[in-house]
Amino acid sequence: MPWASEATVAKLRHRHRPHEGHAGSSAPDTGKITSMTFRIDRILGDRPFAEVGDPALALADESRGLLAVAGAREVGSTAPVGVYRTDDLACCALLRSRYPVHAMAFHPTLPLLLVGTGRYDGGYFFEGELLLLDLETGKATSLVEHELGRQILGVEWLNDQELRVLMAPPDDWDDEDAHAEGHVANVLRPDWRAVPPRSITPDELAGPRVAAPRSDRREEARRTVSAVSAAWDPRRHIRAVRELSDGRILATLDAVQLECWLPSGERQWAVPDEEGGRDVVVAADEQSAWVGLVRPLRDEFPQSVVQLSLQDGRRLDHLRPGAPVSVVRCADGLPAFAPAGRNGERSRLHIRRGSRIYFRATAPGEGVREPDPGEVWLAAVDPDVIPAAERPREPTEAEVGRLFPYSWTSDETHFAGPGAEVADGSLVYAGTVYNGHGLQPGGSFVVRRETTAGKPSWVFRTDTKATDLDCDRETAYVTYDDGEIVALDLRDGTVRWRRHLTVAGVLVVPTAVTVAGPTRLLIGTGDGRVLGCSTG
After folding, report:
1. End-to-end Cα distance, the chain
2. What is the mean pLDDT of the chain?
3. Alpha helices in 491-533 (DSSP H)
4. Cα–Cα dist 241/255, whole Å
5. pLDDT value of residue 175
6. Of 192, 196, 211, 392, which residue is most buried, by most CB within 10 angstroms?
């Protein structure tokens, strides 16, 4: 059963129509989408409760044979809630909350799950949602009318029509006990399946002040899940996938620097890490790989790069660049460091197979949060400037050349993303347009630019952020954070085909993609699985 209704899926598809009015030729509408087959041939890292990762809350409904499990919310991500059948552990419904999940309750008689979410914003408000998930349609409805919602700490069905809700106060202004107390209210509806969105008013949620401790129920949730299946594993967020010539598959992911899977589907080895791996570049002889590790910018060393043996994961070398870098594979097959800036993913341009080392450069002064478009450049280091070496190093300022402004239109500031160099030397890469209110409609793009003056050949605009991109000789494959994968014609940027990625009928978010051969893709997912796929 899908996580969203057909109407929701239709809205998702509508959001990806190309937008006009930018330099170069905007990709026309998708009328020439070609027919194709897309098949998932194998899944690595599959396991029970894969959709939710590390359990934060679990609730069983023994009478219906269901188990609801809420996963921990990650920074900049969502908190998944999966509903599973206890007889076969199949996921029959899934929602993704913007906020951490604090409470859940199955309706006594109707196929409904109530989910209470929320958080403190760090400065004043307690915000959140009361979500009602219909287990038959997969539709989730947000019930609270207030603009910021309310942080919901507890929910309880008193009978078929009456619900008790425990909430944090709206804010902590002059309220020393706001983080330990809350309000309780009863809400009555004759038919909860017919409740409109945002229809529970502030007056209905007004109630007496009570103690409201914020308890951590993660260990209890892990015990509940383990009692059902000891095979669960809190794998999350595949960041890169590569295939070796002997059929083994490499992946970087949260809490793992690098892991290696045998053609049999057995994991050969994995190197644990507090944060995890990001980039991976395999040596030409396939005996080792360089891995860029995820490190917080506040660390003494903002970047760490290791060289690992591909026989057993043993560390062979360790480098600590003085600033964040992407580890990229150049056209000659050697690894290189591309400066990644200090603005996180927004300044990290990662170009695969480049004949030069490309990156997004900000001047003057790296780390400016909102530079004018003219202050940001596409920069490059020519290969003959840095002698070829098996051990990558940071380019010096004298070795860097600015090519042209990063934004091809003067009224926009463009952030970086994943990309690749194609056969004629031009670049195809994804990114987003800066807006103080967040990503706007049409604010996500894929562009093909020649590298002499930077003129776009075409621009494909969407509403959701690209998570990865790779190309073969004719097609750019782009994965998005709403679960869609889009194949673009390299000649003109038109859509060859597109689809939302599902596993066993449940939408998954593709977070990494690599062309593994003709009509073959490797796709990593946000729930820690690696999919071997065929297209054609």
Report:
1. 26
2. 89
3. none
4. 15
5. 93
6. 392
